[in-house]
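User: Hey, quick favor. My workstation is busy. Could you predict this chain's structure for me?
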Amino acid sequence: MKVEVGLRGSPFDPWAELAARGRSARTDLGAAAVFVGTMRDRNEGEAVESMLLEHYPGMTERELERAARAALERWGASEALVLHRVGEVRPGETLVLVAVWAAHRAHAFAACRELMEAVKHRVPLWKRERTASGERWVERNTPGEVAAWETPAEPPEEA
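Assistant: No problem, here it is.
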């Protein structure tokens, strides 16, 4: 199991990050699932000028790694990369990159989705938005609802 996590204090290009790492050297991994989240310019019906992402150094990285390992283990996936912005972020900038490699697509998709939901709901990151009317804390994340056909019902069986 290979996990890489990182926090970025400045804008990053998720596709360049993936290209710099190249594909997995493992020939038994036939699937990669990638999620890239970008900051929107609107939230809760109001224009957002920027957002400040605060975190606990050390703790946030440990939680990202813990979430990645749990998703890989649950879905029988083998490798994960998670990069997340901290500090000031502007609309259009990348917030998060989650990539998962597995033997099969269903498990790569499922692990990627589970990992992204863990990042949104369990990793210690706090968002404060700046709007024309002032600053406000983001109190809840957008739910990541899943259609029944999108996620396998069960993780793979042990071989």
